[in-house]
Every structure is written in C-alpha cells, then in structure tokens.
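Thread title: Can someone regenerate the structure for this chain?

I was given the following input by a collaborator and told the matching structure tokens would be attached. They weren't. Posting the sequence so someone can regenerate them.
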Amino acid sequence: MIATAIPGAVSVVTSCTLPNGVHVIELDYDGTFDDVRSKPTALLFEGRTYGRSGHNSDTFRVYYRTDVQFATAKG
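Best answer:
Regenerated them for you:
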C-alpha cells in the first residue's frame, strides 16, 4: 500500500450546523498563538467556504464559520 500526502490538508476535529444554519468546523492547535496565526484564514470543506472566526486557548481549538467574510488577493 502507498499513501500520498495531500498538500495543504488539515484535520477537522468537529463539524456542526448551528440552529441558524451557519456551519462551524474546529481544528486543534498546539496552544501557542504562533500556531493559531499559522492556520489558514479560510478553508474549503465539503463544498462550503469557512472563514477563521477565533480560537479558544482553554481547549486549543481554532474555529471557522461559513458566515465569516474574507478577501483574497490576486498577485
């Protein structure tokens, strides 16, 4: 068997839908703010685009929501 790395892939810890229809996903981080800042600003997951909305330093989770707006730059 051969496994192939997927560039840019991240592990989603949880995903859910809030009662208002907003989708949320959570990623783990190592507890440092540098690791939070190294996480992507936006993610594409199951066909939906999520923007980073915050983090919890008690649970070491970074949150992404579908109702967070973000911009992309063209170079």
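The longest helix spans residues 33-38.
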